[in-house]
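Sharing a chain and its predicted structure for anyone who wants a worked example. Both blocks are below, sequence first, tokens second.
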Amino acid sequence: MELEKLSKSLEDYLEAIYVVAQEKKIVRVKDLIKMLDVKTASVIGALKKLEERQLVNHEHYGYIELTAEGEKHAVRVYEKHKVLLRFLTEFLKVNKETAEKDACLMEHCISEETFAKIIQLLRLLEVSPEKIPAWFAELKTYMNTGLNTNTKPGACDACA
């Protein structure tokens, strides 16, 4: 089953199960209620759908575990979230709270092609700073300060 066939909501549940499992090792319904700020009935309904797709195992009043396939999907959504959050905060200088919300929205709809290009850009900036074009230093300054260092006195930023 491909990620595109899962709803945003089900992807959020998979990601939440994965994150809680990384922190606590054991995942319970109450953990998902707290993390996702949802009602018990919503969690139970989502778990039922995920069980039907063989992405989680959950016995009534028991622990919740991702299947191998469920973990694969959860990790992919989580990776997208982390990369997009990093891109938004470090590259575009979006504040952390806004970036967190935007990354959560974007992780569900970004194409694999665009996501791969963002990863390539981040790797270039991280691994080969000497290959970064001069314009990037200007962009970085602009994103940090809102000031264009190439602006002529008396000209607006849009005219630079």
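Comments welcome. The domain at 3-73 is CATH 1.10.10.10 (Arc Repressor Mutant, subunit A).
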